[in-house]
Design a protein that fits this description.
mainly alpha; globular
Length: 99
């Protein structure tokens, strides 16, 4: 499977978070910006459905993340919850992309 430059940038960002190079608050900020730019470009129209769903699911997880423990609701993700969710999404995506 080949990816364009925009897709590679998003995949690299996700991998940086999973590997611990980015903390959850920084990942939240950078991914939100990158995903919106990606969404508003012509790129998603050429992305395979599994990858598009993966990027959208990561965005949904990021949107559920709350960095402030005082504001955390039961439906929100903390930093560890976000990491666990992103790792799970990546595993599912890799499984579907290789199928």
């Amino acid at each position: 499977m080949s990816f364009n430059q925009s897709e590679l940038a998003i995949l690299t960002l996700i991998d940086s978070f999973i590997s611990g190079d980015l903390a959850a608050p920084e990942f939240e900020s950078r991914y939100s910006i990158s995903w919106r730019e990606y969404r508003d470009s012509d790129v998603p129209k050429s992305t395979d459905k599994d990858t598009q769903r993966y990027f959208d699911s990561v965005f949904s997880a990021v949107d559920s993340y709350c960095a402030d423990p005082d504001l955390l609701d039961e439906d929100d993700l903390d930093a560890q919850g976000l990491l666990d969710c992103i790792q799970s999404l990546k595993s599912s995506w890799k499984g579907s992309a290789l199928a």
